[in-house]
Every structure is written in structure tokens, then in C-alpha cells.
Design brief:
CATH class: Mainly Beta
Radius of gyration: 20 Å
CATH superfamily: YVTN repeat-like/Quinoprotein amine dehydrogenase
Structural class: mainly beta
Helix content: under 10%
Strand content: over 45%
Number of helices: 2
Number of domains: 1
Largest sheet: 6 strands, antiparallel
Number of strands: 34
């Protein structure tokens, strides 16, 4: 029974990590994790040597940018100092997502570690670290009020409120009613806050097995959007989404948008069709319909970041991987949300390594995991520029965050 449960977790983790959980996630393959391993401990580790990478154009006046690097076995956090990615690093779990809440930086150590940690951005050390339930897989964190935050959990049928002062769990909200028949979790992948409302998007997928307990694939019903009271977590409403396998939710200029990957094709890529894309939710009618199709975007939306002031979204279009060369095609598309138009940002081939907008400047930062050409880039609306790095052996970018 235990072996089958572990197989289910591995299979469903593959399904989850093959899409944009968050904002930042893996599409290259099944993540390697072992619950028998000790949970990751964090420590600052300086590199012995440093060198600066060169590029035809390098970004200037960088914000407080933080970068998780990962090779799927080990992980690290680096930061920008002197306009370059640091030579020093903080050791972290290999599957870690960075999220900011105000001026606070959180590290969500996901399946296989299942921790949330507060990082001190002054000395780059861990302030506190809280262990969550096994296989809970934290995917997002948002402010719930003064010194409190909600943590989204993909791998279990609940989400939790924690203290931002010490990480203590203050409240648990059950989501059992949203679990699909045959599933074990409703797969909560993203939060959004607007006013006093907490928006939560659920994938609700089901991992299928044969009589011998071998994983045979994943079924995707249509996704679900749930609205909660921000302060108390009381369920206010639910809305059936139009498409399958949602990856993100954003409220921009009064409109609610949900991005989706849709189902995978035979080669584990996604198609440019009307079965995925960005949908717009009508809260008064409790309905949702496709707004920017996968045809325009070029594939399913693997990752999603928003410039709220400009009304612009950036979507990573996950087209798939060449199984001969193992090169992944995942370009960034710029979406005008008011017009519903999409255009490609040239110069970034594999944007699986993170996507974040600096709210103060509107500059987009992208992690490119192209083998042999791994780098972080900035995009100011006109040009793409490579972010310089003082790290001689930095791991490929995996998740990005900008601290105010």
C-alpha cells in the first residue's frame, strides 16, 4: 500500500510539475525526490572564485532580484549585488519556489521537503523554517492580514494560514469537497488577492493506475476557481472554469484571468489550439470563457506573470521537448490583456527557469534553462538583456523573485 501511495505521489507530481504551478515550475521531466532523505537545511556558502559573464547587452539598475538555481538534485539561492548575480549562495532544496509578500522573501521548498522558510534579505540567512505535512507541496503564499499569510498546498486537501513572524500554523482550511472522484487532492496551484477576497485555482486532476498499481496517465477535468474571505478563509463561491489544467489566476484592472496548460499531447508538449490559453471570468454570471486562445499564444501557459499597472501579462508557452536533443521550446509571449493580443519576445528559448515582473519598474525577468546557455534575462518592453553573473558555477535558473 505504501509503495502504491509513493507511486501515486511520484506520478501526480510528474503531472503537476509538467505545468506552471505557479508561477515557476518544472516541465523537463519528473522531479527526483526521496522522502527518506533528510529535509534540506539552509546555509550561506560563498564561491571561492568569481567571474563575470558577458553579453552584447547587459541589464542595468537591477531591482532586488533573487534567483533559485537547480539541477534537480541540489538547489541554491543567489541575489543581485553590484549589478550582478552574486558569487555567494544560500543552499536550499532543489525544488524551491521564491515568493515575495510585501518586503518579505519566502522560500517554498516543495514535494520531498515540504517546508516554508522566511529569508532575511539583509544577511541572506534563514530567519525561520516551518515543516508542513508530508507531500503537501506548497505552491504559493499571499498576505492574509497583518503578519499573517495563506500558504497554498497542492498535494493535500487543505491550505493553511501561518504567522509571518515565526511560521506557526494558525489555521487550516479544508478543500476536500473539490477533490475529483479517484483523486487524493484538489491540487491547489495558485492564489491571488483582490480587496478582501482570496482567489484560489484548483487543477483537480486524477492519476490513473492499472491493476498492478502502475501509473498509466493523468485525467484532467475542467479546473475550478474558488473565492474565500481573505481574513477568515470562509468559502464564498466557486466557479467552473472553461478549460483544463489551470496554472495561474490574476485580477488585473477589475478583470479576473485564469491561465491554463490544458492536456498534454502524445509527446508531453501542448498544442496551439482552443483547448488552453487565458480565460476571463465573469463573477456576476459565475461563468468563464476562453479569452486568449492557445492558438494565439502558441501552446499552453506554463508560467504567468503580470504587470498590473500596464495591464500586460507574460506567458511561457510550453510547446514541448525534443526527445532527441532534449532541447525544450518554451518561449515568452507578451499579452495585452485589454486587446487580447499576443506577441513573442525574441531571444529566450526555454523560459522554464522563472518569470517575474518588478512592480516598480515594469521590467520582466526571465530564467532561461537552455542547456549550455543558462542565464537570467531582463526585458524592459523593448529589448532583452542578459543579467551579468559573478558566479562561476551557478546552477541553471529555476525560480525568480523581486523584493520591494
Amino acid at each position: 500500500m505504501k509503495n502504491k501511495y509513493l507511486a501515486l505521489l511520484a506520478a501526480s507530481s510528474f503531472a503537476f510539475f509538467m505545468q506552471a504551478c505557479d508561477h515557476n515550475s518544472i516541465a523537463a521531466g519528473e522531479p527526483g525526490f526521496d522522502k527518506d532523505d533528510d529535509k534540506s537545511s539552509s546555509s550561506v556558502k560563498g564561491d571561492d572564485k568569481s567571474s563575470s559573464s558577458s553579453a552584447s547587452e547587459e541589464s542595468e539598475s537591477l531591482a532586488s532580484l533573487y534567483v533559485v538555481g537547480s539541477d534537480y538534485k541540489t538547489g541554491e539561492i543567489r541575489w543581485v549585488e553590484n549589478d550582478s548575480i552574486s558569487a555567494k549562495s544560500l543552499e536550499i532544496y532543489q525544488d524551491t519556489k521564491l515568493v515575495t509578500v510585501g518586503d518579505k522573501l519566502f522560500a517554498l521548498e516543495r514535494s520531498g521537503s515540504d517546508n516554508v522558510a522566511l529569508i532575511n534579505t539583509a544577511d541572506h540567512k534563514v530567519v525561520w523554517e516551518t515543516a508542513l505535512s508530508d507531500y503537501s507541496n506548497p505552491t504559493d503564499i499571499v498576505a492574509a492580514g497583518k503578519n499573517e499569510a495563506w500558504v497554498a498546498l497542492e498535494g493535500t486537501d487543505s491550505f493553511v494560514k501561518i504567522s509571518m513572524e515565526n511560521g506557526k500554523v494558525l489555521k487550516t482550511v479544508k478543500t476536500t469537497d473539490f477533490v475529483s472522484e479517484g483523486g487524493y487532492s484538489p491540487n491547489l496551484v495558485d492564489f491571488e488577492v483582490s480587496g478582501d477576497t482570496l482567489f484560489a485555482v484548483f487543477q483537480r486532476y486524477v492519476s490513473n493506475f492499472d491493476a498492478d498499481g502502475n501509473w498509466t496517465g493523468t485525467s484532467y477535468p475542467k479546473g475550478l476557481l474558488a473565492l474565500y474571505g481573505l481574513k477568515d478563509g470562509e468559502l464564498l463561491d466557486t466557479i467552473q472554469l472553461a478549460k483544463k489544467n489551470p496554472s495561474a489566476v490574476a485580477v488585473v484592472k477589475g478583470e479576473v484571468y485564469v491561465a491554463s496548460m490544458g492536456e498534454y499531447n502524445a509527446s508531453y508538449g501542448t498544442d496551439a489550439d482552443d483547448e488552453r490559453g487565458i480565460e476571463k471570468v465573469n463573477l456576476s454570471k459565475k461563468s468563464s470563457e476562453l479569452y486568449v486562445s492557445g492558438k494565439k499564444i502558441g501552446a499552453g501557459v506554463y508560467n504567468f506573470a503580470v504587470d498590473y499597472k500596464a495591464g500586460v501579462a507574460y506567458a511561457v508557452a510550453y510547446k514541448g521537448m525534443d526527445m532527441t536533443t532534449y532541447a525544450t521550446e518554451a518561449p515568452v509571449m507578451k499579452i495585452d490583456l485589454a486587446a487580447g493580443s499576443a506577441e513573442a519576445i525574441k531571444g529566450i528559448a526555454d523560459a522554464e527557469g522563472g518569470l517575474v515582473v518588478d512592480a516598480a519598474t515594469g521590467v520582466l525577468y526571465v530564467g532561461d534553462r537552455t542547456y549550455g546557455e543558462e542565464a537570467v534575462y531582463s526585458y524592459d518592453g523593448k529589448k532583452v538583456a542578459k543579467v551579468a553573473s559573478a558566479a562561476e558555477k551557478a546552477l541553471a535558473p529555476y525560480s525568480l523573485a523581486v523584493v520591494k
